[in-house]
Design brief:
Chain lengths: 671, 149
């Protein structure tokens, strides 16, 4: 029954997208407005199909219907409710249902938002491209990755999700967030293709997808950071990022997407970089598909390779089509894409944006190259190689430092050309704060150039952001005669894009500080403890109080109870644990983390208590980890601010209004 | 006054960088062993170094690295010994020769080329006059004005 409903939904989705594509295509060819209006409606058919498929699978999971192979493999009667629901994205086939649902949601959102423009060829083309992408994913589910495959005879119980996927509640939100980000880039992609197809690659399509791009970017950022958090809280190695292929696959579209949301400002403001922006959007979408291919086809090993499946060739063909269409269209339109703008001075906002794009493109290239290099080496020379953290760290650190520098300097640069005097006034104090911070960091015993330069540049950037906020708020305060809290709010409301961007930068700087601090100023030791005996490690004294076993149908867990004190202050009892799941051989450790503003204490149970009550405990002191998550929250907040409507907003369709949302307030205020 | 403040800041930063540079380079046996542990992959897990992994094999490798460093083996000897035993994939840091030249050199080359292209373009932009609006541009503006009114 559920399988029938599910397959029916998939068929409905496939048929709706096929009809939508055909009707819109014919409507565009014949310039028939009624057909365009009709074609748009198929988006809602696709949405209904995706919702139905999603509900059918959740229904099957919640009722433990093991006649479905997917439910049998990713659920068991003992699986707790949260992980039963999250079971939908525990594995490839189910993840594609989520992918289709998110895609259909975005398409419906766009169809509703542009409902008054359904006969506009740009919107019609974009809808057509979106439906074509949806068609691919529905066809994938009807064909090689069918989540509704049935088993006969029906097993009495399922295997349950991979233990790693049923050990922490973050599993319930990290993948959906990531998908909301990944899939969200379909909208900018479909509008980019539509702009190329209609020849309207001015600034109109950029304004149309500005919000969608920011929303996708925000979700992707939060999804990536939640993934790091999950890794830290679950995997027990005390880290949050391992340059694993799946992590890299999520970082790649983030890097090109970040480049795009910066370079788009240059096009809006100066009409330049048209080809580049189109290329970035197409690259971002292609990289989401490439990432899915690299990590789901089994060509690369990864901790995330919870399954291997035969969809590799499908994804690769789809990627080839996407890339060929994108590159072909850009080549075809090449002569008309030539932008009328130019850069007047190397010291200007637009130059800084170009620098930013160069660095982000380089970062994306390094991450891509490092990720596929083992494949290249094996294909070309038959060598088995690995590329890991040392390579990525060494290559990305200098690029990251340049980005920090740009973040400190660029927001202070005026458009077109900067006068020396303006720059001096805007940058001198922040630069001194940065320089002094570097000296203080050195005096406090920071080791190495990278670390002290990072701290100095971070302080430079933060001081510059603070200065801009204060200047903007003060100008609003003077103009309207209000106190500073109200003035700050007014400043933000007057130019949410600028201040939202500055808030995002604040979050990124916090993350940069945390990255450096946590990798340089953390310690790890291993200690053996006997019952009631106290050991001093890295400034903490740990006392083993004994162990406790909990036994549920889902898992059997051994908790070691360890009392923690620091400088005579009791910090409570931490309980690192090891769980074993029925039917799985290896135990899964669960670290116990005492989170602090400056440092975390991170305990892992390396070996279970012996009969003589001895345990081995991994003790890590990790610096400033919590600032990664706080920084992520600040980035999310800044993205929300940037999404707020501006009080000075003009009609979106006004082709002359494209450059209104830039920091005039600020420039006026400090002039 | 301003110029003086910038010069003083430049001096401060240069001194700080020099001090930081001379501080760096801890070549104690423990630091060497730790550095090697960062670039040897844990054989049982994917992509994580033995320095980060708590797997028994990884801990054994870390102990072995310390022992080898204490016994006076050079870093290259130790790397070679591990490559011989586990194969090239044990190293997380690809060699910089042959095909490895690509993975290390290509990004650097591209960044330099990109930066060069930007400098070149900005020079050319400064020499050449601005493009003039075409008939199509004028028409677009005219149409937009009419729509607006």
């Amino acid at each position: 029954m559920k399988a029938f409903v599910g397959v029916f939904a998939l068929a409905l989705g496939t048929v709706s997208s096929v009809f939508g594509v055909i009707v819109l295509g014919l409507g565009l060819k014949k310039r028939d407005e009624r057909m365009l209006e009709l074609g748009r409606r198929f988006v809602f058919g696709v949405l209904a199909a995706a919702v139905l498929a999603f509900l059918a699978m959740e229904w099957a999971l919640l009722s433990h219907d093991f006649s479905l192979e997917y439910v049998y493999e990713n659920n068991a009667r003992a699986t707790p409710l949260l992980y039963t629901i999250a079971g939908l994205w525990a594995n490839l086939e189910g993840s594609i249902i989520l992918w289709a649902l998110v895609l259909a949601g975005y398409l419906a959102f766009a169809a509703r938002r542009f409902r008054d423009r359904s006969t506009d060829p740009l919107v019609a083309w974009a809808t057509l491209v979106g439906l074509a992408v949806a068609l691919f994913f529905f066809a994938l589910m009807l064909g090689p990755a069918n989540p509704f495959k049935t088993l006969s005879p029906t097993p009495s119980d399922g295997l349950g999700p991979n233990p790693l996927l049923q050990n922490h509640p973050l599993m319930a939100i990290h993948p959906p967030m990531l998908y909301l980000g990944y899939v969200g880039f379909t909208l900018p992609f479909s509008f980019a293709i539509a702009a190329l197809a209609t020849g309207r690659f001015g600034e109109g399509w950029l304004a149309d997808i500005r919000r969608a791009t920011l929303i996708a970017w925000g979700f992707l950022t939060v999804g990536i950071i939640l993934g790091g958090w999950w890794s830290y809280e679950v995997l027990g190695w005390g880290g949050y990022w391992a340059w694993d292929p799946v992590e890299n696959a999520s970082l790649l579209p983030w890097l090109t997407g970040t480049a795009f949301i910066h370079s788009v400002i240059v096009q809006e403001r100066r009409g330049m970089l048209r080809v580049w922006n189109l290329s970035l959007v197409i690259a971002t979408f292609s990289l989401t598909i490439l990432g899915t291919f690299l990590t789901r086809s089994g060509v690369l090993d990864s901790v995330h390779s919870f399954t291997e499946s035969p969809i590799g060739p499908w994804l690769l063909s789809f990627l080839a089509v996407v890339a060929a269409v994108g590159i072909g269209l850009i080549a075809w339109r090449g002569d008309r894409l030539r932008a009328p703008g130019r850069i007047d001075s190397p010291v200007s906002r637009e130059s800084a944006f170009l620098g930013n794009n160069l660095i982000f493109a380089a970062l994306a290239f390094v991450v891509l190259l490092g990720t596929v290099y083992p494949l290249l080496a094996e294909a070309l020379q038959g060598r088995q190689l690995s590329v890991g953290e040392p390579y990525f760290n060494r290559m990305t650190t200098p690029l990251g430092l340049v980005l920090l520098f740009l973040m400190a300097v660029a927001p202070a640069l005026p458009w077109r050309a900067a006068s020396g005097e303006v720059l001096q006034r805007r940058l001198l104090v922040p630069a001194w704060i940065g320089g002094l911070t570097m000296v203080v960091a050195l005096l406090l015993g920071t080791n190495g150039i990278t670390d002290s330069v990072t701290f100095g540049l971070a302080a430079f950037a933060l001081a510059g952001i603070a200065r801009q906020m204060v200047v903007g708020a003060r100008a609003q305060g003077r103009a309207n005669g209000v106190a500073w809290p109200a003035a700050t709010l007014r400043a933000i409301r007057s130019n949410p894009r600028l201040y939202g961007g500055l808030i995002v930068h604040t979050g990124i700087v916090l993350i940069a500080i945390a990255l450096v601090a946590s990798s340089s100023y953390s310690t790890r030791r291993e200690v053996r403890l006997t019952r009631d005996n106290t050991v001093n490690v890295s400034g903490y004294s740990l006392t083993y109080l004994g162990s406790r076993i909990t036994d549920t149908k889902q898992k059997v867990t051994v908790h070691a109870r360890i009392r923690v004190e620091r400088d005579g202050d009791a910090l409570g009892v931490l309980t690192p644990a090891i769980s074993s799941f029925p039917g799985r051989t290896s135990g899964i450790g669960t670290p116990a983390v005492k989170t602090g503003i400056v440092r975390d204490l991170y305990l892992t149970l390396v070996s279970s208590p012996t009969e003589r009550e001895r345990v081995t405990v991994g003790v890590q002191v990790n610096s400033m980890i919590v600032w990664l998550w706080i920084g992520g929250g600040v980035v999310a907040l800044g993205t929300l601010v940037a999404l707020m409507p501006s009080l000075r907003r003009r009609s979106q369709r006004d082709p002359l209004g494209a450059d209104d949302a830039e920091p005039r307030v600020l420039e006026g205020a400090s002039a | 006054m301003n110029r003086l403040a910038w010069a003083a800041l430049a001096l401060l930063v240069v001194v700080a960088v020099v001090v930081a540079a001379t501080q760096a380079g801890d070549s104690s046996p423990r630091a060497r062993a730790n550095a090697l542990a960062e670039e040897i992959q844990c054989p049982e897990c994917d992509g994580v170094s033995v320095a980060q992994s708590l797997a028994p094999t990884s801990r054994a490798i870390v102990r072995d690295l310390r022992r080898r460093v204490a016994a006076g083996e050079s870093d290259d000897d130790i790397r070679a010994a591990y490559v011989e035993r586990y194969g090239e994939s044990i190293r997380l840091n690809p060699e910089g020769d042959g095909l490895g030249l690509l993975v290390w050199g290509l990004p650097v080359t591209l960044v330099l080329a990109g930066a060069g292209a930007l400098v070149f373009a900005s020079r050319r932009w400064r020499r050449e006059p601005l493009m003039h609006a075409t008939g199509a541009d004028e028409e677009l503006v005219e149409r937009a004005r009419r729509d607006d009114a």
